[in-house]
């Protein structure tokens, strides 16, 4: 496995984004490297999805610079499969013919080997989400954007899907940006967790815990519990026992979005 973990795949400086009079993102700075797993928490409506959409090139920043590596793929809360296409065709949709055999290999990696000819309607929610993951990873993304991909799954399936994503990301080493409402999920999966509030990051913490981080081993780990307590406090779920870190410096640069060479 190549060790390309130092290559910057996402670089954001002074990002500002408003919808009408409402400023949603106000001076965001962010850098994510290949092989790094970054999780973003924050109250509802604080702009987490907007940040992902900017990174995906679906929204234009009003100010600041946004650079990403060229291959960016997104997995959403719902699998978004084409119901009239079989599983393998969903995974390889849009790929050149020469790369289509990668689809079967990727399905095997997500535990769906042998299901190539199944129709999406016959899959469970967890299986459908694994197809969506295979469809994203078969494109060999340098940047993988995950927009609450586990939120619609039942608790047990969610834990299994989290473990699978951790394993696949460790193998394929994209830069990952995960948006989630689940503090435990963020701490279990991420190398870094930030909390977005009022347009800016109010926390940006390294989660320096050994891997693999199985659900059982992390449930009672004191370091995990401390991260959990801090993040829940910053999210306003637990009462504050200390002051919130002030947001990082803001800047109003010219608007730009581009690709890291
Ligand atoms: N295209 C748009 N036009 C106008 N307002 C928008 C648009 N997209 C998002 N917003 C507003 O921007 C704010 C941030 O939305 P966003 O979906 O990014 O938040 P979020 O943190 O992902 O929320 P949630 O956690 O509930 O998914 C919200 O107030 C939303 O209504």
TrEMBL record:
Pfam families: ABC_tran. InterPro entries: AAA+_ATPase (IPR003593), ABC_transporter-like_ATP-bd (IPR003439), ABC_transporter-like_CS (IPR017871), ABC_transporter_ATP-bind (IPR050166), P-loop_NTPase (IPR027417). One of its GO terms (molecular function) is ATP binding. Keywords: ATP-binding, Nucleotide-binding, Transport. SUPFAM superfamilies: P-loop containing nucleoside triphosphate hydrolases. Residues 240-261 are annotated as: Disordered. Residues 10-223 form the ABC transporter domain. SMART domains: AAA. This is ATP-binding cassette domain-containing protein. It comes from Actinomadura litoris. The lineage of its organism: Bacteria, Bacillati, Actinomycetota, Actinomycetes, Streptosporangiales.
